[in-house]
Design goal:
205 residues; 81% helix; 0% strand
Amino acid sequence: MQLEHAEHTLETIRTLMERSQRYEHLSGYSGLAAGALALAGCATLAGGWLPDTAFVLVWTVVFVLAFAINAALTANRARQCGEPVWSRQARTVAAAVAPAFVAGVAVSAALVREHRLDLLPAVWLVLYGCGALATSFFAPRSIARLGLTCLALGVTSLVVSPGWPLLTMAVGFGATHVTLGTCLLVAERRAKRERAFWAEVEEMI
């Protein structure tokens, strides 16, 4: 019994240490919002009434809106948990993402200069996937799956079908983020049920 108790205690400590290193304030609603914005951007460009030069502008607006919504929802969750918004975990995640973001800006500028807008979505997916994978040690495991999916879709698009930029954006950024948001919301509700269950158990004890 003592051995089992010691093993259980060690497992609890290990779990708490792992959780303390992970950034758990990502909101499922931010994933849904990012996916919806990406699909809206695809629908806007699919109409064909905008000039080709509007491609970068539309996706810049989509990125800014998605980033702002994610930042607001994430900050709100951190405050609800009584933790600082710009915590050590948040700084670690930002530092992990920064290289991929800077590379994305540089490569995008080069492709725009060379008039290769058709390659932008695939390149964005590859770099986004690399950035997400870089944060997988500090963020929920669903981010690692998102990173692998985006990286695979980006590589496939570059090698097999670079001529379908809107389809690449719709699947790579739209569908994947809607799926991510759904998974995060399911995980949040499961965690709430578990906390409520253990709270009842503690009251009974």
